[in-house]
Amino acid sequence: MKLKHTLLGAAAVMALAAPAIAGRGDDGDVKLIYWQAASLMNPYLSGGTKELEAASMVIEPLARYDQDGNMVPWLVDEIPTIANGGVSKDLMSITWKLTEGLKWSDGTPVTAEDVRFTWEYCTADGGGCAQAEKYNDISDVQVVDDRTVTVHFTVPKPFPYAAFVGYESPIIQKAQFENCMGPKAPECTEQNFAPVGTGPFVVTEFRPNDVITLKANENYRDPNKPAFATVTFKGGGDAAAAGRSVLETGEFDYAWNLQLAPDVLSNMAAAGKGKVVSGFGTLVERIMVNLTDPDPKWGDERSTLKHPHPFLTDINVRKALSMAIDRELLVEIGYGVAGKVTCNILPAPAIYASTANDSCKVQDIAGANKLLDDAGIVDTDGDGIREKDGVPLKILYQTSTNAVRQDFQALIKQWWSEIGVETELRNIDASVFFGSDPGSPDTYQKLWADVEMYANNFSGSDPEAYMANWHSSKIPSPETQWQGSNMPRYVNAEYDALVAEMAVTGDIEKRAELAKKMNDMLMQDYVMIPLVYRGRVSAHSNSLGGVQLNTWDSELWNIADWYRIK
Q1: pLDDT of res. 508
Q2: Domains, the chain, ranges and CATH?
Q3: Is residue 201 a contact partner of residue 226, using CB atoms and an 8 Å limit?
Q4: For burial by CB atoms within 10 Å, which of 59, 108, 361, 463 has the most?
């Protein structure tokens, strides 16, 4: 990760990166299609990328990452460092100073109290904050003056840039959210659908899992931006329809996450109405293994630590499931040049990429069968399904509705049948699967299934907060309103210790060593099964200018600089 130090501030940085554009609102409407529809605009109540991306047009962090993975100032004039005095020499604090004159979209000033409140909101008792790992090791956020906050840590933090940095950790307005703390957070519908922000746009109408309409923020800090007067953010449908709407029909200007077979995408692009853009960041399609029992008989205690899984707690079963998968074929049919075989959950940057798990690159059905035989997990009644302590190896395998994912499910079901595992497939509308409703039985956090498949990554290029996702404190449960990032319900004191050690380690080589150890522990415990290292693939119309695909932050990170090519 690199820092870009500047005294210009975010607006000037972006002005250097984009050609001259029209005045604010001169370019009419820009139409975005996200086939996974957003269910709210509060990233603290959902870890779903669709919510993070939608919210990034409205609420912003103090600093974020550009298209090259560099940290750039956003609501501040410079990134705090030891060299400029912003980070204390003992690494126990970092001081941020807001850019002068910042206003919320309602015209009120942005102050240090809002920054402090954001920390209080995410760490409130009885709440379930989807981004809790960003606030690890913080003892206090001290308001120094109206524009200055000092974040104090409980331990020395060589990398103090998790809180308030990147699109997962934006600043929210205290005046709007102060009555929405802890258990009340999900009940604040108006706030969660239409947050007051500092970003280039303001929500005018929010229809959950459907359409969001936005207008230019009249109090945005650059008086000439955004060029577009309004945004139509359409959700739902599927990746194929989204791709066609930009590349073939020209109905929309931007289509996100075109998870399509390579030949399908190339045929669409041949129509000549738009461009496909792609880039590799840290996105990995993976299967998450539930170490707890999702059986409905446990009621509200399903998929909680109170009830261990009857056979997925056996590492031999988990390892065999991984060995049976042909990752090269998955890449070929699902992604082509936009995918790579991986055996890691942390595939990049290169310094963090482990080679210790490369055996997964070669499918080994025979080896998987021998492993299970040797473990005494055999088919005793001749029905083709192995049993573990009398419990048949029958798996419910869920994911979101998407043609590539359903192809993957079908192939993996077949491969697992060849090692004596019966698989039931379930696909759930992406807006629901990646949604935030704690009452829904079908969210990926709740994981009322044996395994589930999706992709995830992290903002920026430092993996500290990302690897902390599988700390035992991050397990979703009824007590956290099913928020949390540790979907496998993984509990390992040694892993937790590595998370704590990385938090206080400054040397980059040592940080890389620790990150690899954590990756290898997860991989060799087979609590998650990586499938494909995915490039991000999106598309925009030929008439849309200013787009810079960003794999390290929101794809809409610079939407203030988008404009209509005339």
Answers
A1: 82
A2: 2-273+542-564 (3.40.190.10), 280-365+437-535 (3.10.105.10)
A3: yes
A4: 463
Structure tokens at 491: 């509990």
Which pLDDT belongs to residue 509? Answer: 87
* pLDDT of the residue at 446: 95
Judge whether 534 and 285 are in contact, CB under 8 Å: yes
Closest to 112 (Cα-Cα) out of 125, 128, 99:
99
At 435 the pLDDT is 85
What is the CB-side half-sphere exposure of residue 190 using CA atoms within 13 A?
Answer: 3
Segments of the chain scoring below 50 in pLDDT: 1-19
Kindly give, in sequence order, each residue whose CB lies less than 8 Å from that of residue 406, ignoring residues fewer than 6 positions away. 399, 425, 427
List 278's β-bridge partners, or say none. 537
Cα separation, 323 vs 337, whole angstroms? 24
What confidence score (pLDDT) does residue 350 get?
87
Q: What is the pLDDT of residue 1?
A: 42
Full-model pTM: 0.79
Cα–Cα distance list, 392 to 122, 291, 301, 307, 373 (Å): 42, 16, 22, 17, 14
Task: Return the pLDDT at 15.
Answer: 40
Q: At what angle do helices 327-334 and 403-417 cross, to 10 degrees?
A: 160
Would you state the torsion angle of the CA atoms of residues 51, 54, 59, 60, taken in this order, to the nearest 10 degrees? 90
